[in-house]
Amino acid sequence: MNTLTIVLLVILAVLIVVLIVLYFLGKKAEKKQAEQEKLLENAAQQITMLIIDKGKMRLKDAGFPPVVLENTPKYLRRSKVPVVKAKVGPRIMTLMCDSDIFPQIPVKKEVKATVSGIYITKVKGLRGPLETQQKKKKGLMAKLRGEA
After folding, report:
1. H/E segment holding residue 96
2. Are 40 and 116 a contacting pair, CB within 8 Å?
3. Is 23 exposed, middle or buried (0-12, 13-18, 19+ CB in 10 A)?
4. What are the tens digits of pLDDT across the range 93-112?
5. What is the pLDDT of residues 14-57, one digit of tens each?
6. Residue 38 CA: distances (Å) to CA of 16, 30, 112
7. Residue 49 burial (CB < 10 Å; 0-12/13-18/19+)?
8. Of 51, 89, 90, 99, which has fewest CB within 10 angstroms of its CB?
9. Cα–Cα–Cα angle for 52, 118, 104, nearest 5°?
10. Do the bridges between strand 119-125 and strand 91-97 make them parallel or antiparallel, or are there none, so unpaired?
11. pTM for the full model?
């Protein structure tokens, strides 16, 4: 056989092995995520809160308790997470938010949220539907057309 075909066959075999390993690791991660979702749903509570501020910041800068920082994996400590400051009853709390619902949360409005520990999973408007003002960014071509 030609050396080129042997090299290509070895590369193909390595790629197939890598794909099989990734498939099984993905299955395992899916099961683990499903378990964690069940735990979050079991510990969920409905809370009425006034949203004071929201933003994406690092865990160290967010003001979470030291226990949260200790339990976070080291590779995730420097990543930015969606954080919400809210007044729950007489206390002001810093809560972490699901990245999917983060744009829906209105600032300086009262909402009814489903909270599991310090993690907000769902948000509903207390008085009617949520009114979120999302500005769509114009693309480069749309800006150029607007100027012309």
Report:
1. strand 91-97
2. yes
3. exposed
4. 999 998 888 998 988 889 99
5. 999 999 999 999 999 999 999 988 988 888 889 999 999 999 99
6. 34, 13, 21
7. buried
8. 90
9. 50
10. parallel
11. 0.66
